[in-house]
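Researcher: Let's continue the batch. This sequence belongs to Bis(5'-nucleosyl)-tetraphosphatase [asymmetrical], and it's 151 residues. Same format as the previous ones, please.
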Amino acid sequence: MSELDIEHSAGIVIYNSGRYLLLNYGRSWNSPDRWGLTKGHIEKGETIEQAALREAYEETGIKQIKICKGFKNKVTYYFNRGDKRIKKTVVYLIGLTETTKVHISAEHTGYYWASYEKALEMLTFENTRRVIRAAEEYLRENDLAVDFYDD
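Model: Same format as before. Here are the structure tokens for Bis(5'-nucleosyl)-tetraphosphatase [asymmetrical]:
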């Protein structure tokens, strides 16, 4: 591996009445059942918010999402794609929605509306759990969080 490619993505922590929307990516190299958040590449000319909203719609079918302007959480990680080493940075926003109807894309195998505690339990990667912890803190500080315990 001689080259390092850099990728930039945007994602949304989709939140509705005390629950976070988690997406199942199915089997991956490190997990038989990988759970994560909506995210995808920022296309040329897009802002982070535009890319995040587009990806959320493409992956979940949810169009009515209100972005919380005061939250941005950046995650950087490395992975291999063939003989290339990739450095990927994802900026996550929080999006509030009133819908629970989800129409997942073909790139996912399922979805789950999880309480905060259940989301921390289900998410595959620690960096994604850190995003959920930061989102929960932001939502609580801004009186937007709702306690939900019945998972």
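Researcher: Any comment?
Model: Strands lie at 4-16, 19-28, 31-36, 38-41, 66-67, 73-81, 84-96, 110-114.
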